[in-house]
Protein backbone atom coordinates (compact mmCIF):
# COMPACT_ATOMS: atom_id res chain seq x y z
CA UNK A 1 0.00 0.00 0.00
CA UNK A 2 1.01 3.61 -0.45
CA UNK A 3 1.91 5.32 2.82
CA UNK A 4 2.31 9.07 3.23
CA UNK A 5 3.68 11.10 6.12
CA UNK A 6 3.74 14.87 6.56
CA UNK A 7 3.29 17.53 9.20
CA UNK A 8 3.25 21.23 10.02
CA UNK A 9 5.36 22.54 12.90
CA UNK A 10 3.54 24.36 15.73
CA UNK A 11 6.15 27.10 15.60
CA UNK A 12 3.98 30.08 14.71
CA UNK A 13 0.62 30.97 13.19
CA UNK A 14 -0.32 28.37 10.60
CA UNK A 15 -0.82 30.56 7.56
CA UNK A 16 -2.04 30.43 3.97
CA UNK A 17 1.46 29.36 2.84
CA UNK A 18 1.28 26.21 4.96
CA UNK A 19 -2.31 25.73 3.87
CA UNK A 20 -1.38 25.91 0.22
CA UNK A 21 1.81 23.86 0.41
CA UNK A 22 0.74 21.33 3.00
CA UNK A 23 -2.71 21.29 4.61
CA UNK A 24 -4.80 21.56 1.44
CA UNK A 25 -2.65 18.75 0.03
CA UNK A 26 -3.33 16.58 3.08
CA UNK A 27 -7.04 16.96 2.49
CA UNK A 28 -6.70 16.14 -1.19
CA UNK A 29 -4.34 13.19 -0.76
CA UNK A 30 -5.88 11.44 2.24
CA UNK A 31 -7.97 9.17 0.03
CA UNK A 32 -5.08 8.04 -2.15
CA UNK A 33 -2.70 6.98 0.63
CA UNK A 34 -2.62 5.58 4.14
CA UNK A 35 -1.78 8.89 5.76
CA UNK A 36 0.09 9.87 8.89
CA UNK A 37 -0.35 13.61 9.46
CA UNK A 38 1.47 14.60 12.61
CA UNK A 39 2.25 17.76 14.54
CA UNK A 40 6.07 17.94 14.74
CA UNK A 41 6.31 19.58 18.14
CA UNK A 42 9.74 18.03 18.76
CA UNK A 43 10.92 19.79 15.62
CA UNK A 44 9.44 23.10 16.74
CA UNK A 45 11.68 23.20 19.83
CA UNK A 46 14.89 23.24 17.80
CA UNK A 47 14.43 26.97 18.21
CA UNK A 48 13.04 28.39 21.46
CA UNK A 49 9.28 28.15 21.89
CA UNK A 50 7.46 29.83 24.70
CA UNK A 51 5.90 26.86 26.59
CA UNK A 52 2.39 28.37 26.74
CA UNK A 53 2.48 29.18 23.06
CA UNK A 54 3.83 25.79 22.08
CA UNK A 55 1.01 24.18 24.03
CA UNK A 56 -1.71 26.28 22.41
CA UNK A 57 -0.28 26.10 18.92
CA UNK A 58 0.03 22.34 19.06
CA UNK A 59 -3.71 22.13 19.72
CA UNK A 60 -4.33 24.78 17.09
CA UNK A 61 -2.51 22.89 14.37
CA UNK A 62 -4.29 19.65 15.26
CA UNK A 63 -7.68 21.39 15.29
CA UNK A 64 -6.92 23.05 11.97
CA UNK A 65 -6.06 19.72 10.36
CA UNK A 66 -9.49 18.45 11.31
CA UNK A 67 -11.29 21.72 10.55
CA UNK A 68 -9.74 21.89 7.09
CA UNK A 69 -11.05 18.45 6.30
CA UNK A 70 -8.52 15.83 7.32
CA UNK A 71 -10.67 12.88 8.44
CA UNK A 72 -9.35 11.46 11.72
CA UNK A 73 -11.05 8.17 11.01
CA UNK A 74 -8.96 7.73 7.91
CA UNK A 75 -5.71 9.58 8.45
CA UNK A 76 -3.69 9.11 11.64
CA UNK A 77 -3.40 12.51 13.35
CA UNK A 78 -0.98 12.69 16.27
CA UNK A 79 1.52 14.76 18.22
CA UNK A 80 5.11 13.73 17.61
CA UNK A 81 6.05 14.07 21.29
CA UNK A 82 3.39 11.51 22.24
CA UNK A 83 5.01 8.77 20.19
CA UNK A 84 8.31 8.11 21.93
CA UNK A 85 9.65 5.98 19.10
CA UNK A 86 10.48 9.14 17.13
CA UNK A 87 13.11 10.30 19.59
CA UNK A 88 14.47 6.82 20.03
CA UNK A 89 14.89 5.99 16.36
CA UNK A 90 16.34 9.43 15.84
CA UNK A 91 19.19 8.55 18.20
CA UNK A 92 19.88 5.29 16.39
CA UNK A 93 20.00 7.16 13.09
CA UNK A 94 22.21 9.91 14.48
CA UNK A 95 24.87 7.28 14.92
CA UNK A 96 24.58 6.58 11.20
CA UNK A 97 24.49 10.16 9.92
CA UNK A 98 27.80 11.80 9.12
CA UNK A 99 28.78 15.10 10.65
CA UNK A 100 29.86 16.26 7.19
CA UNK A 101 26.58 15.50 5.45
CA UNK A 102 24.59 17.29 8.15
CA UNK A 103 26.95 20.25 7.81
CA UNK A 104 25.97 20.53 4.16
CA UNK A 105 22.24 20.98 4.84
CA UNK A 106 21.34 24.39 3.48
CA UNK A 107 18.40 24.85 5.86
CA UNK A 108 20.78 24.52 8.82
CA UNK A 109 23.14 27.02 7.26
CA UNK A 110 20.26 29.46 6.67
CA UNK A 111 18.63 29.04 10.06
CA UNK A 112 21.81 29.08 12.10
CA UNK A 113 23.15 32.08 10.19
CA UNK A 114 26.68 31.00 11.08
CA UNK A 115 26.10 31.39 14.83
CA UNK A 116 27.51 28.60 17.00
CA UNK A 117 25.10 29.19 19.88
CA UNK A 118 22.18 27.61 18.00
CA UNK A 119 20.90 24.36 19.52
CA UNK A 120 22.50 21.14 18.38
CA UNK A 121 18.93 19.97 17.76
CA UNK A 122 18.78 22.41 14.88
CA UNK A 123 21.80 20.62 13.44
CA UNK A 124 20.36 17.11 13.85
CA UNK A 125 16.85 18.17 12.79
CA UNK A 126 17.06 16.28 9.47
CA UNK A 127 17.85 13.04 11.32
CA UNK A 128 14.71 13.37 13.42
CA UNK A 129 12.84 14.03 10.20
CA UNK A 130 14.30 10.83 8.76
CA UNK A 131 13.10 8.94 11.84
CA UNK A 132 9.59 10.41 11.43
CA UNK A 133 9.39 9.13 7.88
CA UNK A 134 11.12 5.78 8.27
CA UNK A 135 9.16 4.69 11.36
CA UNK A 136 6.00 4.42 9.27
CA UNK A 137 7.72 2.90 6.23
CA UNK A 138 6.35 5.87 4.28
CA UNK A 139 6.50 5.35 0.55
CA UNK A 140 5.67 8.97 -0.29
CA UNK A 141 6.49 12.30 1.29
CA UNK A 142 5.19 15.60 -0.07
CA UNK A 143 8.11 17.99 -0.26
CA UNK A 144 8.47 21.66 -0.95
CA UNK A 145 11.68 23.02 -2.45
CA UNK A 146 13.29 23.48 0.95
CA UNK A 147 12.75 19.88 2.02
CA UNK A 148 14.20 18.11 -1.02
CA UNK A 149 17.68 17.92 0.48
CA UNK A 150 16.33 16.53 3.75
CA UNK A 151 14.41 13.81 1.94
CA UNK A 152 17.55 12.86 0.02
CA UNK A 153 19.33 12.50 3.36
CA UNK A 154 16.49 10.30 4.64
CA UNK A 155 16.93 8.01 1.64
CA UNK A 156 20.70 7.92 2.14
CA UNK A 157 20.37 7.03 5.81
CA UNK A 158 17.80 4.33 5.08
CA UNK A 159 19.93 2.79 2.34
CA UNK A 160 23.06 2.95 4.50
CA UNK A 161 21.30 1.26 7.43
CA UNK A 162 19.68 -1.41 5.24
CA UNK A 163 23.05 -2.19 3.70
CA UNK A 164 25.09 -2.17 6.89
CA UNK A 165 22.66 -4.12 9.10
CA UNK A 166 19.58 -5.65 7.50
CA UNK A 167 16.80 -4.52 5.19
CA UNK A 168 14.65 -2.53 7.62
CA UNK A 169 13.44 0.72 6.06
CA UNK A 170 11.45 1.64 2.95
CA UNK A 171 13.08 4.34 0.82
CA UNK A 172 10.50 7.15 0.45
CA UNK A 173 9.77 8.92 -2.83
CA UNK A 174 9.20 12.66 -2.97
CA UNK A 175 5.81 13.91 -4.14
CA UNK A 176 6.35 17.22 -5.87
CA UNK A 177 3.40 19.56 -5.83
CA UNK A 178 2.59 21.39 -9.04
CA UNK A 179 1.15 24.68 -7.90
CA UNK A 180 1.02 26.59 -4.66
CA UNK A 181 4.14 24.83 -3.38
CA UNK A 182 5.85 28.08 -2.56
CA UNK A 183 3.79 31.04 -1.39
CA UNK A 184 5.88 34.14 -0.78
CA UNK A 185 5.55 36.86 1.86
CA UNK A 186 2.96 39.60 1.27
CA UNK A 187 5.58 42.17 2.24
CA UNK A 188 8.42 40.77 0.13
CA UNK A 189 8.04 38.27 -2.72
CA UNK A 190 11.67 37.18 -2.41
CA UNK A 191 11.03 35.50 0.96
CA UNK A 192 8.86 32.44 1.56
CA UNK A 193 5.76 33.22 3.60
CA UNK A 194 6.86 32.01 7.01
CA UNK A 195 5.01 31.52 10.26
CA UNK A 196 7.91 32.68 12.36
CA UNK A 197 8.24 36.03 10.57
CA UNK A 198 7.77 38.68 13.27
CA UNK A 199 6.03 40.95 10.74
CA UNK A 200 2.42 39.74 10.91
CA UNK A 201 1.61 41.66 7.75
CA UNK A 202 3.84 39.26 5.82
CA UNK A 203 1.34 36.43 6.17
CA UNK A 204 -2.36 35.69 6.54
CA UNK A 205 -2.96 33.36 9.46
CA UNK A 206 -5.66 30.72 9.02
CA UNK A 207 -7.17 32.22 12.17
CA UNK A 208 -7.15 35.89 11.13
CA UNK A 209 -10.51 37.69 11.30
CA UNK A 210 -12.04 38.62 7.93
CA UNK A 211 -11.35 42.32 8.55
CA UNK A 212 -7.68 41.56 9.20
CA UNK A 213 -7.44 39.40 6.08
CA UNK A 214 -8.92 42.22 3.97
CA UNK A 215 -6.50 44.72 5.44
CA UNK A 216 -3.47 42.50 4.91
CA UNK A 217 -4.29 41.96 1.24
CA UNK A 218 -5.01 45.63 0.67
CA UNK A 219 -1.52 46.38 2.03
CA UNK A 220 0.25 43.56 0.17
CA UNK A 221 3.07 44.82 -2.03
CA UNK A 222 2.53 44.83 -5.79
CA UNK A 223 4.39 46.83 -8.43
CA UNK A 224 3.91 49.99 -10.50
CA UNK A 225 2.97 48.21 -13.73
CA UNK A 226 -0.75 47.95 -12.83
CA UNK A 227 -1.52 44.77 -14.76
CA UNK A 228 -2.69 41.48 -13.27
CA UNK A 229 -0.25 39.25 -15.10
CA UNK A 230 1.43 36.01 -13.99
CA UNK A 231 5.15 36.46 -14.58
CA UNK A 232 7.47 35.49 -11.71
CA UNK A 233 10.50 37.11 -13.34
CA UNK A 234 9.06 40.54 -13.97
CA UNK A 235 6.17 40.61 -11.49
CA UNK A 236 6.88 38.36 -8.50
CA UNK A 237 4.58 40.10 -6.00
CA UNK A 238 1.55 40.07 -8.31
CA UNK A 239 2.30 36.50 -9.44
CA UNK A 240 2.31 35.44 -5.81
CA UNK A 241 -1.12 37.03 -5.26
CA UNK A 242 -2.47 35.31 -8.39
CA UNK A 243 -1.10 32.01 -7.09
CA UNK A 244 -2.87 32.50 -3.75
CA UNK A 245 -6.06 33.45 -5.59
CA UNK A 246 -5.86 30.28 -7.63
CA UNK A 247 -5.28 28.04 -4.58
CA UNK A 248 -8.20 29.55 -2.66
CA UNK A 249 -10.72 29.92 -5.49
CA UNK A 250 -9.84 26.81 -7.46
CA UNK A 251 -9.75 28.97 -10.61
CA UNK A 252 -6.87 28.57 -13.05
CA UNK A 253 -4.15 31.18 -13.35
CA UNK A 254 -5.30 31.87 -16.93
CA UNK A 255 -8.88 32.46 -15.87
CA UNK A 256 -7.75 34.90 -13.20
CA UNK A 257 -5.54 36.85 -15.61
CA UNK A 258 -8.41 37.12 -18.10
CA UNK A 259 -10.91 38.22 -15.47
CA UNK A 260 -8.79 41.22 -14.45
CA UNK A 261 -7.40 42.14 -17.85
CA UNK A 262 -7.19 45.88 -18.33
CA UNK A 263 -8.01 46.58 -14.65
CA UNK A 264 -5.68 47.80 -11.93
CA UNK A 265 -5.04 46.03 -8.66
CA UNK A 266 -7.94 47.40 -6.55
CA UNK A 267 -10.76 45.02 -7.50
CA UNK A 268 -8.33 42.13 -7.90
CA UNK A 269 -7.05 42.49 -4.34
CA UNK A 270 -10.56 42.91 -2.91
CA UNK A 271 -11.85 39.80 -4.63
CA UNK A 272 -8.72 37.87 -3.70
CA UNK A 273 -9.38 38.71 -0.04
CA UNK A 274 -13.01 37.53 -0.41
CA UNK A 275 -11.87 34.23 -1.94
CA UNK A 276 -9.59 33.63 1.04
CA UNK A 277 -12.19 34.76 3.60
CA UNK A 278 -14.88 32.50 2.19
CA UNK A 279 -12.57 29.48 2.22
CA UNK A 280 -11.36 30.18 5.78
CA UNK A 281 -14.69 31.06 7.43
CA UNK A 282 -16.03 27.50 7.69
CA UNK A 283 -12.59 26.23 8.73
CA UNK A 284 -12.45 28.81 11.52
CA UNK A 285 -15.95 27.93 12.64
CA UNK A 286 -15.08 24.26 13.07
CA UNK A 287 -11.73 25.14 14.62
CA UNK A 288 -13.46 27.15 17.36
CA UNK A 289 -15.89 24.31 18.01
CA UNK A 290 -13.21 21.69 18.53
CA UNK A 291 -10.00 23.35 19.69
CA UNK A 292 -10.86 23.13 23.40
CA UNK A 293 -12.96 19.99 23.15
CA UNK A 294 -12.47 16.52 24.55
CA UNK A 295 -13.19 15.36 21.05
CA UNK A 296 -9.81 16.75 19.98
CA UNK A 297 -8.10 15.01 22.92
CA UNK A 298 -9.68 11.77 21.84
CA UNK A 299 -8.54 12.21 18.25
CA UNK A 300 -4.97 12.85 19.39
CA UNK A 301 -4.89 9.98 21.87
CA UNK A 302 -6.31 7.57 19.37
CA UNK A 303 -3.90 8.86 16.71
CA UNK A 304 -0.90 8.43 19.00
CA UNK A 305 -1.95 4.85 19.78
CA UNK A 306 -2.35 3.95 16.12
CA UNK A 307 0.95 5.62 15.26
CA UNK A 308 2.86 3.96 18.11
CA UNK A 309 1.69 0.54 17.06
CA UNK A 310 3.24 0.90 13.65
CA UNK A 311 6.28 2.82 14.90
CA UNK A 312 7.13 0.19 17.50
CA UNK A 313 7.32 -2.55 14.87
CA UNK A 314 9.87 -0.60 12.88
CA UNK A 315 11.85 0.47 15.91
CA UNK A 316 12.09 -3.12 17.16
CA UNK A 317 13.27 -4.29 13.75
CA UNK A 318 15.95 -1.58 13.72
CA UNK A 319 17.12 -2.43 17.24
CA UNK A 320 17.29 -6.13 16.45
CA UNK A 321 19.20 -5.43 13.28
CA UNK A 322 21.76 -3.44 15.26
CA UNK A 323 22.17 -6.16 17.85
CA UNK A 324 20.32 -4.72 20.83
CA UNK A 325 18.83 -7.19 23.26
CA UNK A 326 15.07 -7.05 22.75
CA UNK A 327 12.26 -9.14 24.17
N1 LIG B 1 5.09 29.75 2.20
C1 LIG B 1 4.84 28.48 1.96
N2 LIG B 1 4.39 28.09 0.75
C2 LIG B 1 4.14 26.79 0.50
N3 LIG B 1 4.30 25.82 1.41
C3 LIG B 1 4.73 26.16 2.63
N4 LIG B 1 5.00 25.45 3.72
C4 LIG B 1 5.40 26.27 4.71
N5 LIG B 1 5.43 27.54 4.26
C5 LIG B 1 5.03 27.50 2.97
C6 LIG B 1 4.89 24.00 3.79
O1 LIG B 1 4.26 23.64 4.98
C7 LIG B 1 4.81 22.43 5.46
C8 LIG B 1 5.13 22.56 6.90
O2 LIG B 1 6.14 23.45 7.10
P1 LIG B 1 6.82 23.48 8.52
O3 LIG B 1 5.82 23.77 9.53
O4 LIG B 1 7.62 22.27 8.76
O5 LIG B 1 7.79 24.66 8.47
P2 LIG B 1 8.53 25.53 7.45
O6 LIG B 1 8.43 25.03 6.06
O7 LIG B 1 9.89 25.74 8.01
O8 LIG B 1 7.60 26.78 7.58
P3 LIG B 1 7.80 28.15 8.24
O9 LIG B 1 6.47 28.77 8.16
O10 LIG B 1 8.92 28.88 7.60
O11 LIG B 1 8.08 27.86 9.75
P4 LIG B 1 9.32 28.23 10.64
O12 LIG B 1 9.61 29.66 10.31
O13 LIG B 1 8.87 28.04 12.03
O14 LIG B 1 10.43 27.29 10.25
C9 LIG B 1 6.01 22.10 4.60
O15 LIG B 1 5.64 21.07 3.72
C10 LIG B 1 6.28 23.37 3.87
O16 LIG B 1 6.82 23.12 2.59
Automatic annotation (TrEMBL):
Chief location of this protein within or outside the cell: cytoplasm
Residues reported in the UniProt entry to bind L-tryptophan: 132
Sequence motif 'KMSKS' region, residues: 192-196
GO molecular function: ATP binding; tryptophan-tRNA ligase activity
Cross-referenced Pfam families: tRNA-synt_1b
Protein's UniProt name: Tryptophan--tRNA ligase
Organism: Paenibacillus algicola
InterPro entries: aa-tRNA-synth_Ic, Rossmann-like_a/b/a_fold, Trp-tRNA-ligase, Trp-tRNA-ligase_bac-type, Trp-tRNA_synthetase
EC class (word): ligase
Gene Ontology CC terms, in alphabetical order: cytosol
Family assignment from sequence similarity: Belongs to the class-I aminoacyl-tRNA synthetase family.
Subcellular location: Cytoplasm
HAMAP family: Trp_tRNA_synth_B
Function comment: Catalyzes the attachment of tryptophan to tRNA(Trp).
Organism superkingdom: Bacteria
Amino acid sequence: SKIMLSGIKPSGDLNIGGYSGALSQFVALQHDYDCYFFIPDLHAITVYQDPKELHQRSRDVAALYVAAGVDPNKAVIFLQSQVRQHAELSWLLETQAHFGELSRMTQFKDKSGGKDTVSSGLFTYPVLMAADILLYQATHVPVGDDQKQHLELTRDLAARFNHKYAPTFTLPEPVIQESGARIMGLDDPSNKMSKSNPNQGSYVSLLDEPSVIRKKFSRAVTDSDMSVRYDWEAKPAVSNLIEIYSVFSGDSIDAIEKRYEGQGYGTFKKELAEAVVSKLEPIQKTYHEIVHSEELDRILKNGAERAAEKAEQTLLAAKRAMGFVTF
